[in-house]
Amino acid sequence: MLEESNSTLIQYPTQFTQNIVPKQIHSHNDYWRDVPLLTALSLGVGSVEADVWFIDNTLFIGHELAALTPARTLDSLYIQPLISILARQNPVTAFTANQTTPNGVFDMSGTTSFQLLICMKTDGDSTLPPVLKALEPLRQLGYLTTFTNGTLIPSAITAVGTGNTPLEADGIMALSPRDLFFDAPLIDLDDPNVAYNVTISPLASTDYEPAIGWPGIGNISEAQMGNLTKFINDAHTRGIKARFWDTPGWPIQARHAVWELLLNAGADWLNADDLEAASQF
Ligand SMILES: *[C@@H]1O[C@H](CO)[C@@H](O)[C@H](O)[C@H]1NC(C)=O
Ligand SMILES: *[C@@H]1O[C@H](CO)[C@@H](O)[C@H](O)[C@H]1NC(C)=O
Ligand SMILES: *[C@@H]1O[C@H](CO)[C@@H](O)[C@H](O)[C@H]1NC(C)=O
Ligand SMILES: *[C@@H]1O[C@H](CO)[C@@H](O)[C@H](O)[C@H]1NC(C)=O
Ligand SMILES: *[C@@H]1O[C@H](CO)[C@@H](O)[C@H](O)[C@H]1NC(C)=O
Ligand SMILES: CC(=O)N[C@H]1CO[C@H](CO)[C@@H](O)[C@@H]1O
């Protein structure tokens, strides 16, 4: 059996994520999982969130200061693992000689871009430059979705800044080429001051409770349904994907009712803490 499983006939280069169906699930506080990034990938989760703190010239990962350790950095937990996975998904062989765009992390769907949401916890203006620098190894390998010369070129990883990420002045809007994007405020997509579009924001998000409010129990009101439809339409009109965070987690029945409501209304990402439950939903 061991011998059989080692046969060259049943092995192939990109099987690290073999048979995993990619899903539009966002892993909230991904660094809390058993294994950051890999637990999510094993369940087909298409987007992960990493909270970064820029302290002593290093980007540490964690929910709060008390949770930080020297070893857990943006580079060690996300950038290097992604590079090693993408190296496996992009073997250099005679068969790939003419391939111009890299495969993504999912073997089953090479063109699916994996979303890396970087939530800046420390001051945005001082955290942005080191985050851009941390992305350099992915950038060098051509793995980052990039807006350049008026064209959006999709690639294996789409990096999006959230939290304190600055938009204007020297923020995301000033980047050219741009390979870090901006998580737009979903309820302000009609803001006349910023004409959000996919060249700035592939994603727009909002806190579910103040925006919609239906707790997942009883009937949703017409006004709540109207708001939900409006926000999703505002995003889709601009080609932007919609995400609602902090949806009810309990009771499970309410959590599922809200997930069902969101998916039926056209929300693009399910924001989840329990990835296993969301991946089986
Ligand atoms: C698998 O096969 C290769 C080449 O035949 C051999 O070098 C390697 O030791 C084998 N690995 C296992 C775990 O049997
Ligand atoms: C790559 O392109 C060359 C030149 O057009 C062609 O001869 C070769 O068959 C192609 N290889 C593959 C794997 O498609
Ligand atoms: C973008 O335009 C500049 C100036 O015209 C050119 O040097 C550069 O190669 C272009 N980049 C891409 C990716 O096409
Ligand atoms: C996208 O939005 C930015 C910021 O509002 C704007 O500068 C840019 O012209 C827009 N691009 C397109 C193609 O609409
Ligand atoms: C909820 O909606 C159903 C179906 O429209 C209706 O029968 C029921 O009375 C409503 N419940 C409440 C508490 O309004
Ligand atoms: C958060 C939000 O925008 N809520 C809106 C829901 O819809 C009602 C009725 O149109 C508005 O008054 C609220 O502002």
UniProtKB/TrEMBL annotation:
One of its GO terms (molecular function) is phosphoric diester hydrolase activity. GO terms for biological process: lipid metabolic process. InterPro entries: HAT_RTT109-like, PLC-like_Pdiesterase_TIM-brl. Transmembrane segments: none annotated. Belongs to the AIM6 family. This is Altered inheritance of mitochondria protein 6.
